[in-house]
Design goal:
With about 260 residues, this protein is α+β, with helices and mostly antiparallel strands. The chain contains nine helices and 14 strands.
């Protein structure tokens, strides 16, 4: 079995001071994906150098320092690693790392937030369409697993206060929901919801309002798995027990070796 873990760390240098190594050791992932590193290449390399059991592959924002960024840490060296989706306007913020393994391709993504006042919603819709096209191209090679902060709550079950946020807050507009729906309709499965159909659990809480203490959260971190691979996934979890970020880790355990 193979364990894959994804975590929006909200600053890779900051989380290293918050029992990060112990938490990773407890989860014992074969592959560990990070989003929102908020670090340039050398700073991220330095921070992650303590994870010496893993090969590390880092993407970072070229447009704005200390912003966005993704990384994949893998105990097994991948066959191939690529950054970004090959579309210049979407490739400036270090939002994608893809690692190819024997049985599948893993895409770690930090989806753009639509922003305060939904000022970036139009761009977000362009991103969603381009990202799905990118995944479809990858699928021609071998099956795909997508993980990361997708910045959208799919249904009312995935957000503590759906009515007050619907079409008002970034991450819960109909346009963003439709973007995720298109991915699901294209053959990707929301692994957590498929294996835990009735469980209400969140992966993100706004730090400004002590939302985590009150569990006023959102489920916006996912593992989307090609339908052809879903039968190999036997567990999909949200790890509320781990702290250090405004998100918690999510994982799948699957027969992907």
């Amino acid at each position: 079995m193979m364990k894959l873990v994804s975590w929006n760390v909200n600053g890779v240098r900051a989380i290293m001071k918050k029992e990060f190594q112990k938490n990773v050791a407890d989860m014992a992932p074969d592959v560990f994906c990070l989003q929102e590193n908020k670090a340039q290449l050398e700073d991220a390399k330095t921070a992650l150098s303590v994870m010496d059991d893993y090969h590390s592959y880092i993407n970072y924002s070229k447009a704005r320092k200390g912003y966005s960024g993704t990384a994949i840490l893998s105990k097994t060296e991948p066959i191939n690693v690529e950054h970004d989706m090959g579309v210049e306007e979407h490739d400036q913020e270090g939002r994608i790392v893809m690692a190819e393994f024997e049985e599948f391709q893993l895409v770690n993504v930090y989806t753009p937030n639509s922003g305060s006042g939904l000022k970036r919603l139009d761009y977000r819709q362009e991103w969603d369409a381009a990202f799905l096209d990118y995944l479809k191209k990858l699928e021609k090679n071998k099956p795909v697993v997508v993980c990361g902060d997708l910045n959208v709550a799919h249904t009312e079950m995935d957000i503590a206060r759906p009515k007050s946020n619907y079409n008002k807050s970034a991450g819960y507009t109909q346009a963003e929901i439709d973007g995720l729906e298109r991915h699901l309709n294209a053959g990707f499965v929301d692994s957590f919801r498929a294996l835990n159909p009735d469980e209400v659990k969140y992966s993100y809480w706004n730090q400004m309002f002590k939302s985590r203490e009150r569990n006023v959260g959102w489920r916006i971190d996912y593992f989307l798995v090609n339908q052809s691979l879903m039968e190999k996934v036997n567990k999909a979890e949200i790890h509320n027990e781990y702290y250090g970020s405004d998100h918690c880790p999510v994982s799948i355990t699957a027969d992907l070796k």
